[in-house]
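Late entry, written up from scratch paper. The run itself happened at the end of the previous shift, but nothing got recorded in the book at the time, so transcribing now.
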Amino acid sequence: MSKYLRIVYMIAICLAIGFLGSRITQMTIDTWYPTIEKPIFNPPNWVFAPVWTLLFILMGIAAGLVWNKLEENKEDVKKAMLFFIIQLLLNLLWSYLFFGLNNLLLAAIEIILLWLIIFETFMLFKRINLKAGYLLIPYLAWVGFASILTITIYILNY
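Output as recorded:
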């Protein structure tokens, strides 16, 4: 498989996960979500789709760059990609916990775990391909912000 095809493939996977998460979110974005208390720093709803789309594209590029190093560093790439897949699934799980189940406590706990796994993925990626690691920094920052937001929403509603 060509280097570019791997990157395109990983972008497609990330965007597919993002799409699934958005489907879960859409179930309650107009019903349950407006009824809960949110902090003053909560962004408007329209901000989330473009930010997440960009982040999923950056994540896909990063994963593709790491995958392209498989022949050079098989064990490290396999470990890094395993962490990448785990964080991607945890990303989707957060949408289910928060919007699907409306469980703010579980979502708050889970997003902290998600941030930690993203951080480990970042550390693994940057050892394999520095650019790939740097491409995860906006994701780390956004999930850090989302963690604060989720925890604050939990506190405001319980």
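The two ends are 51 Å apart (CA to CA).
(Scratch paper discarded after transcription.)
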